[in-house]
Amino acid sequence: MSSxxxxxxxxxxxxxVTRAAVFTHGLPGRIGDAxxxxxRLAAEAGVELAPLGEGSPDLVVALGGDGTMLRALRATLGxxxxxxxxxxxxxxxxxSAEGERLEDALPRVFAGEFRIVELCTLAAALAExxxxxxxxxxxTSAQPGRMVELGWEVGGEELGSQPCDGLICCxxxxxxxxxxxxxGPVMMWGLEAMAITFVAPHSLHARPLVLPRGHxxxxxxxxxxxxxxxxxxxxxxxxxxxGGRLSVSLGGQTAALAVLPEVSFFSRYHAVFP
Length: 274
Hints:
Structural class: alpha/beta
Largest sheet: 11 strands, mixed
Distance between the termini: 34 Å
Oligomer: single chain
Order of helices and strands: EHEEHEEHEEEEEEHEEEEEEH
Strand content: 35-45%
Shape: elongated
C-alpha cells in the first residue's frame, strides 16, 4: 500500500490555499499541457506548488481519470489532505471538473471555494499483512475461467457457501466501479457502509448486501483445490489456498475528496451515467 507519512489539516470552505501538490496520470500524453496550465494558475493565485510528500500541502490537484484519483486518494490516506480531481480520463466519476474547464475551476479552488467529502475505507486482514482499500477488496479465482466456492459469514453469523467467479466488497466510492458492472448497489459518498456482491454466482438467490460499520465480513476459500487471488483497489496483494480466510471491515482511515460547491454525488452520477 502506498501512503504518505505527512500530516495536514484540510482547509474548510473559505480558506485560501497557499500550498498545493500536483498528482498526474502515469502517461503524460493523456493530460497534454495540463501541468503547465496548473503552474500558471498557481503563480497567478500566489499558490506554491510542491511535489506530493514534501511538506504539508493544503490541497492535492489530481490530473487524470478515476484511476489517477484512486492513486491520489491512496497516497494521501491518513494525512487529511483533500484531493481535487480534474478529469482527463474516460469517466472521471470522482473528479469535480473536466479538463477544458481547468482555468475556470482551479482559481476558485485556490481561493478556498470547495467543500470536502470524507470517504470511508476498508480494512482487509490477510496472512500477507493488513491492507487498506479506498474502492474495493476483490476475491477472485486465481485461474481465470475456473469457478471457486466461497464461504462467507457476517457479524459472526454463518451464511453458507457460494459457487461463483469471485466476490466484491466495496466502499461507497468504489460502488460505481467493478461492483456496479456486476449489478451491485450504488451507494452515496459519505455513507459509512460496505457492499458485498458476488461475481457470476451459480445461484438464483445470491443478492448484493449492504452492511454498516461493526458487521465484518469473513470469506473462506472452500474450493477443494483451487486457489483464489485477493485484489485491493485492483492490485494483487495475496492468495488464499483452500481453507484460507480473509476478513474485511470498514477501516479507521478516511480519504478526503475536494469538490466544487455545486458538485454533488448525483450531479456526477448523472454526468457519468446518463
